[in-house]
Each structure stands twice: as structure tokens, then as C-alpha cells.
From TrEMBL:
Name of the molecule in the record: Tripartite tricarboxylate transporter substrate binding protein
InterPro entries in alphabetical order: BUG, Bug_dom1, TAT_signal
Family label: Belongs to the UPF0065 (bug) family.
A Pfam short name: TctC
Superkingdom, natural source: Bacteria
Organism: Agrobacterium vitis
Length: 329
């Protein structure tokens, strides 16, 4: 969790100083946060998706914590969240009661799809949580360590079929980063895209692919049961609830988090943005949110305001470079 001193430093000089006062000390956060009568949350994907799940958790926690009276969730699916982003920018300009769920997938989709808008066109509110990915192989695989896999991959990368999510998404980015770390041209990747974690796991267990990348939460049960072997996770450090070693601790310099965030509508003023920032900050500090973090196996990745905006710029540069190496940008 971001400390008070860090938050104040981040907000100083950016128009967010008043928001900082609204969220500390923690035990006064709920009382000091202005109540929003009715909040509109846009999930830029279909019901049941990760974006939708985030929207519904935020709705439930904000309502239980007394931060809002009620919320309406609208699903606008399409193109990795970019359709929802464009409609949000067009239809919700100036609305101080609207939030768009965003995340790392949207950043990469903007680049891969050459979408004519950027996340920066919306008001940065906060990065909420993250998840690390696991690189897994079947229990019967000859690759016992990440070193074994790396050695085989360097020799003939095309023989290693790598299962993951959509082309240009987080799993594909991880594969591209892995190739660059191994000194292999990312265009030589034998990447096989699937619609979701269930299909990825089925392909791996069915012997149709050599290895797979998926979020830790989606494969943790199979790792614990011994059905699959986790060669490493993409977290930058040991994280609570993740029992596998990081890639970095094994000498592979690859760190990647899939993250979710909230954006405000373009055209809102400083006070309106402060109100949204303070409301989200109080949500993050609430007991119901902390319970969700633990239940979902999410990683606390909270980063508010302009610090979050700077983070998105950095991520965009990294993603663009990696997608370009894959021939997708």
C-alpha cells in the first residue's frame, strides 16, 4: 500500500494535494470521502471478463463501504477494451460520476490495433491491483527448470510451442520478452493463441503445446496438485500466495504484471477528479477491498493519480518496443 508521505509527494503540485488530505489518516478515510450518489462504471469487455469482474468488485466494495449510493455497470466489449475506451471518451466527457475499467491489456491493444486514441485522453485515477503470470509445463515434461527450457529454446525456438492468450496480449508480450532475454528473434516464436485460461490449460494437459503462460490464479490449483510444473513466475519479487520462484530469482531478467486500473472521463475539472481519486483511495483502504485482494489472489498494486499516468507512459514504451519486435507494431 502506498504510504502517506509517498502519496503526498506524488500529488504535490499536480492539483491532487486536497485529495491527499481527504484520504489520511486511514481510519477517517470513509468519513472524509464525499459520497457519490450514483456511479457509472464502464467495463470495456463482455460480462464475465476480467474487466467486468473488476467493475463488479468495485461496485460491491464501494457500496458496502458507503462510498456510493449505487452503481450502474455497462459492458462495451471489443478489440481488447479499445472500443469501450473510444466510446467512453466520446459519450462521457465531463461526467464526474463515471469510471472506465482499464488495464495492461488495453495498453497493448491500443498499440497492436493502431487505435487512434490513447489512455492519456482520459483522467488518470488509479492502478488498483496486479497479477503475475506463471510459465508452466506438463508434469511429464522433460523441462524441469527454466534453465532447461531456455537452453532448448535458444537452440531451436520453433520447436517450443508456447500457449497463451490473444495475439498482442500479456502472454504474447511475455513470450516476446522471454525471446529477447534468451537472445532469440521474437519473430521466431511458435506462439499459439487461445481465447482464455481454460483453453490454454486444456491444450497443455492434452499434449498439444510444449508450455504455456497464464496468470498464477488460473493455474495455481493445477500446480499444487502436481498436474503441471511451474518453472517460474513473472513477479518482480516473492508475492504472498505465490509458491513458485520468480524468473528473476533464477537469472531470467523478466518482470511482468497484468494490472487493472480506473480512469475518469475527459473534461472533468480538478475538484471532480480529486473526488474520484479520494473515493477510490478510500475503497482501496477498506476492509471489503482487502478481503477481495486476499480472496482473489490479487497483488496490491495501488498507484494513484499522476504517478499512475507516468506508469502508463512507461508501460506503453515497453509494450510498443516488444510488439514491434514481434512484428505487431
Amino acid at each position: 500500500m502506498i504510504e502517506r508521505r509517498t502519496l503526498l509527494k506524488t500529488l504535490a503540485g499536480t492539483g491532487f494535494a486536497a485529495a491527499a488530505l481527504a484520504v489520511v489518516p486511514p481510519h477517517l478515510a470513509l468519513a472524509q470521502t464525499p459520497r457519490i450518489k450514483r456511479l457509472r462504471i464502464i467495463a470495456p469487455a463482455a460480462a464475465g471478463s476480467g474487466y467486468d469482474e473488476t467493475a463488479r468488485v468495485c461496485e460491491r466494495v464501494m457500496t458496502e463501504s458507503g462510498l456510493i449510493g449505487s452503481a450502474q455497470i455497462t459492458n462495451i466489449p471489443g478489440a481488447g477494451g479499445t472500443v469501450g475506451l473510444m466510446k467512453f471518451l466520446e459519450q462521457y466527457r465531463g461526467h464526474d460520476d463515471a469510471l472506465l475499467v482499464s488495464g495492461s491489456t488495453m495498453v497493448s491493444a491500443i498499440i497492436a490495433n493502431k487505435t487512434p486514441v490513447e489512455i492519456s485522453a482520459a483522467a488518470p485515477i488509479a492502478r488498483l491491483y496486479g497479477t503475475a503470470n506463471a510459465l508452466i509445463v506438463p508434469a511429464s515434461s522433460p523441462y524441469k527448470t527454466i534453465g532447461d527450457l531456455m537452453s532448448a529454446f535458444r537452440k531451436v525456438p520453433e520447436t517450443i510451442s508456447w500457449a497463451g492468450g490473444s495475439i498482442g496480449g500479456g502472454d504474447h508480450l511475455i513470450a516476446g520478452m522471454f525471446a529477447k532475454t534468451a537472445g532469440v528473434d521474437p519473430k521466431r516464436l511458435n506462439y499459439v493463441a487461445f481465447a482464455g485460461g481454460g483453453e490454454i490449460l486444456a491444450a497443455l494437459l492434452g499434449g498439444h503445446v510444449t508450455m504455456a503462460s497464464s496468470t498464477w490464479g488460473e493455474v495455481a490449483e493445477q500446480v499444487r496438485s502436481g498436474e503441471v510444473r511451474c518453472l517460474g513466475v513473472t513477479a518482480g519479487k516473492d508475492e504472498t500466495g505465490i509458491t513458485a520462484p520468480t524468473l528473476r530469482s533464477q537469472g531470467v531478467d523478466l518482470v511482468f504484471y497484468t494490472w487493472r486500473a480506473l480512469l475518469g472521463a475527459p473534461g472533468i475539472n480538478v475538484q471532480q477528479r480529486e473526488n474520484l481519486l479520494a473515493t477510490v483511495d478510500a475503497m482501496i483502504k477498506s476492509d471489503p477491498w482487502k478481503a477481495e485482494i486476499e480472496r482473489q489472489g490479487w497483488i496490491d498494486f495501488y498507484l494513484p493519480g499522476d504517478a499512475f499516468a507516468s506508469f502508463v507512459e512507461e508501460q506503453s514504451q515497453i509494450f510498443r518496443t516488444t510488439l514491434r519486435s514481434l512484428g505487431l507494431a
